[in-house]
Every structure is written in structure tokens, then in C-alpha cells.
Amino acid sequence: MRLPTPPAPHIHGGNRVSLVMQRVLLALVPGIAALVAVLGWGVLVNVVVAVVVAVACEAFMLRLRGRPVRLFLGDWSAVVTAVLLALCLPPLLPAWMTATGVAFGLIFGKHLYGGLGYNPFNPAMVGYVVLLVAFPRAMVQWPAVAPFAETAVGPLQTLQITLLGHWPAGVQPDAITQATPLDHIRTRLGEALTIGELRGGPAFGVLAARGWEWINLLFLAGGLALLWLRVIRWQIPAGVLLGLAIPALVFWSFNPDQYLSPLFHLLSGGAMLGAFFIATDPVSAATTPRGRLLFGCGIGLLAWIIRTWGGYPDGIAFAVLLMNMAVPLIDRATRPRIYGHGGG
């Protein structure tokens, strides 16, 4: 009599959703520290407000959908979405706006599509774009880089501004806010100035945008750690950086007085945060190896186009959402051929 074959043993890789999300959060720490050092305590206020609202919205929607709250809250995905959105927001943004963006991203960008694993768009970028369209003026009021701000804003003053909406006596918004380097350069180029004339001004640092170069380098370090831990694949970050750098190199080579260098683009704005942490969202990104590379290249190219000729200084969010729409077509076009089947 033949005994039934027992089920085959399987080796568990230990790559649980919660573990992956926790590693992403740890990899963000160096970049967050740089943001706080350069732009002030409002970065941490945004993070705390976003996380609290995200957990509350996640619990509410899970209960509304009849899903186990503790189980799904334990995957840390809502916290990662909240932190990524918070890092994209101006540090002195009113807390109610931060809460609005997080709630919209999680409810409309995630749960109304069926929750984690079913959302076609990156929820953090959905929330960001909603805020950018609804509150354009507030979303461009970034604090001046710490050493060049006329008035320093401490932790208590930051809480007063963000939570109460009240500016302390003697502190004026114009004294501590300014355009981001990308926005400043784009505006000045529109006034018939050249990059050579702008160099040495408040927008330029040692390598690229003043202050933002160090922020991007530390997000790059965190992203490389994720690659080393195999939390993310290399294709999407490589595609984003190539898609951003190659057109920048071509146009900068022909006219360096009107177009920024590739290094400036790579180390300015949300380039590294977008390439390693936002575009690599495993749900809304392409899934095939070639598809991931094309997806990343599309994001980088669209971001460069928006930065150069669009109406917004940093186009990472719009580029991600536009490429999210193209994911089904990309995956279909780059589907690997099944072994033994012809290519006809």
C-alpha cells in the first residue's frame, strides 16, 4: 500500500509585509534627520500628525469594511504612507491640511479600491497632489534653509504655527519662508537671467541645491540600504535616476545657461526620496523586470519635463501617478515569455 505523499516543506523567507515596512521606516531615518537639520522641527510635527491621522483612518476604514483591525494595522503600511506624505509637505503647513491629505490618500487612494494590494495609485502621492491642487499657496511656503533664515523658529513656535495657525509675535512668514531652489531657479530663468548669473545665490550649494543636496544624499544612503537588504529591486530606482539624468545631461550639454545639470536634478527636491521610497511601492508599480525599468524611466523623464517646462517646481508626484496609470499596459507589454512557448 502506497502511503500518501506528505506536503512538501517550504522555506519561509521572512519577508513579511510588516518587516518590509519597518525596514523602509528605518531607512528613512537618515533623510528625516537631514530634513530636520535643514528645514526645522516642522518636519517632525508633520510626521507625527500624519501618522496619528493615518492610524485612525486605517482603523476606521477597516472596521467599516469588516476587516480585523489589529491584524491589518500591524502591517505598518498606513504608517509608511503617512511618513512618506509628511516628508513631501512644507514643514510649517497647518496640521489640518496635513491631516486632510493623509485622510484622502488612505480613504480614497487605498481603501475605496479594496485596501492594500488593490490600489492602482500610490496613496501618499494621491494625498500630496490633492493638497497641491487645493492649497497651492500653502504648499509652496517652505522655510528657508536653516543657516540663511532671518528668524529661527523653535519647537514651541513650530507647534504654535502648525497646530494653532497663529504666528508668534515678531515672527513674520516672509522672514522665515522662501521658494525652494527649483522654484527659485525656474522663476529667475523666466526673468531672462542665466544659471551662471544665479550661481552663488541662495539656490546653489556645494554640489546642487543648497541644503537639499545633503537631504538627497542621506535618502540615497537609506535607499542603498534597502537594495542591500533586498527590500526593493534595483530597476525602478535606476530607471528614475536615468530618466531624470539623461535628458538633463543632453539639454545641459547644449545650453548650460538655461538648463540645470544632471547632478543638480539628482540632488534637488524629492529625487532620491521618489526614486527609492515612493516609486518602489510594490502595489502600484510595475511588476516585471523590464517593466520596472520602463516604469522608473518614465517617472524620471516626466519629472524632468515638469521641472523644466511645467507649472510645478518638482514633478515627482505627478510623474508617479501618471506612470501608475500606465502600469497595466507596461506589465502586459513586458510579460516574460513562458518557457516552451513561441514568441509569435
Structure at a glance:
The protein has helices spanning 17-39, 42-64, 69-73, 77-87, 95-109, 123-134, 155-164, 173-176, 181-189, 195-198, 212-228, 235-254, 262-266, 271-278, 289-309, 316-333, and strands at residues 142-143, 177-178. It is mainly alpha-helical. It has two domains: 16-178, no CATH class; 180-332, no CATH class.
Question: How are the secondary structure elements laid out?
Answer:
Blueprint: H1 17-39, H2 42-64, H3 69-73, H4 77-87, H5 95-109, H6 123-134, E1 142-143, H7 155-164, H8 173-176, E2 177-178, H9 181-189, H10 195-198, H11 212-228, H12 235-254, H13 262-266, H14 271-278, H15 289-309, H16 316-333
Antiparallel strand pairs: 1-2
What can you see in these coordinates?
This protein has 344 residues and is mostly helical. It folds into two domains: 16-178, no CATH class; 180-332, no CATH class. The protein contains 16 helices and two strands. It has helices at 17-39, 42-64, 69-73, 77-87, 95-109, 123-134, 155-164, 173-176, 181-189, 195-198, 212-228, 235-254, 262-266, 271-278, 289-309, 316-333, and strands at 142-143, 177-178. A two-stranded antiparallel ribbon has the order 1-2. Helix 1 packs antiparallel against helix 11 (212-228) and helix 6 (123-134) packs across helix 16. 46% of the residues are buried. The model is unreliable at 1-14 (pLDDT under 50).
